Amino acid sequence: MGMDAEEFIIRLLPVLSNLVFLWPAERALKRKFPIDTLLWSFIALFSSPAYHLCMGFYACLWAVDKHRVVDFWSAEMAMPIVALCFIAFRAPFIRTWIIFICILAIGLLVTGTNSSFMSQAVIAGVSGLAVIFYLLWHRYAHEYWPDYDMKRLVLGIGFLALGVCFFVVQEWWPPFYNYVHSYWHVFTALGIGFMYDIQPEESATTRTPLESQVIGSSILKPIPRSLARFTPRGQLAQRV
Fold first, then answer.
1. 3-class SS at 229?
2. b or e along 166-202 (b: 16 or more beta carbons within 10 Å of the residue's beta carbon)?
3. What is the pTM of this model?
C-alpha cells in the first residue's frame, strides 16, 4: 500500500532537517577547521539522511544496522567537538589530532557496545570533564576565567539543550517521532553553529610571571578578558 502526500512529507522531514548542519560546516570553515567542516557536511548530506531514507523509505545502501552505526558515530562526534569549542590551542594541529583520536575512540565505542545510552553517557561525561578541567586550569594559570562571547555562548548552549530535550522525548509520542527528531537535528545544528564563535579569532596576550611559571610552553593559550586585566588584589596585571 502506497503512502499519501502527507505521510511522504512527514517521513522526509528527518532527511531534509539535516541540511541545517551546513551552517556549522560554514562556521567551521571560516574558523579554518577543515575536519569539522567535513564532519558536518558528512552529517548534512550523507550519514543521517541515508539512515532516515533507509528507515522511512527503505532506500538502504546496506543493512539498516550499519546505517545506524554510521549515523550514531557521526552524531556523537558532536559532543567532543562542542567541548573543543571552549578550548584555545596554541597550535591548530593539536586540536586536529585530538579530533582524530575522538573519531577512532567513538567509532570503537559505538561498534563495541549495544547500549547507545551507555556510549552517549561516556562521551558526554568525558567531554564535560575536559571543559571543566580547561576552565579550572585557565582560572589557575591566568588568574581569570576565559572571556567568551556570552551572547553566542548562551544561544549555543540554549539551542543544544533544546536539541537534547527533543532527543530524549522523541520516543514518547510515536505518531510525532519524525517531527520531534527533526527538531533535534535543527536545534542541535544551530547550537553547534553558535558555539564556533564563542572565542575571539585571535587570542594574543602577554604572559604574567605566574602564567610563565605555571604553563611554560603550554599547548593551550589564554583568552584575553579585556583591554586591561586586574589581579584579585586590584593591581593592573596586563594590558593587551
1. strand
2. bbeebeeeeeeebebbbbbbbbbbbbbbbbbbbbeee
3. 0.83
User: For residue 226, is it within any domain?
Assistant: no
Give kind and range of the element (H or E) at residue 228: strand 228-230
In a domain, 130, yes or no: yes
Domain count, the chain: 1
Dihedral (C-alpha) 135, 139, 140, 143: value to the nearest 10 degrees? Answer: 160
The answer to the question of residue 56 being in a domain is yes
- 79: cell is 559532543
Q: Which residues contact 95 (CB under 8 A, 6 or more apart)?
A: 33, 84, 87, 89
Amino acid, single-letter form, for residue 22: L
Q: Which domain holds residue 125?
A: 5-201
Please report whether residue 228 resides in a domain. Answer: no
**240 residues of the chain, pLDDT tens digit each:** 567 888 999 999 999 999 999 999 999 999 999 999 999 999 999 999 999 999 999 999 999 999 999 999 999 999 999 999 999 988 888 999 999 999 999 999 988 877 778 888 999 999 999 999 999 999 999 889 999 999 999 999 999 999 999 999 998 888 899 999 999 999 999 999 999 999 987 543 444 444 444 444 456 766 665 444 444 444 444 443
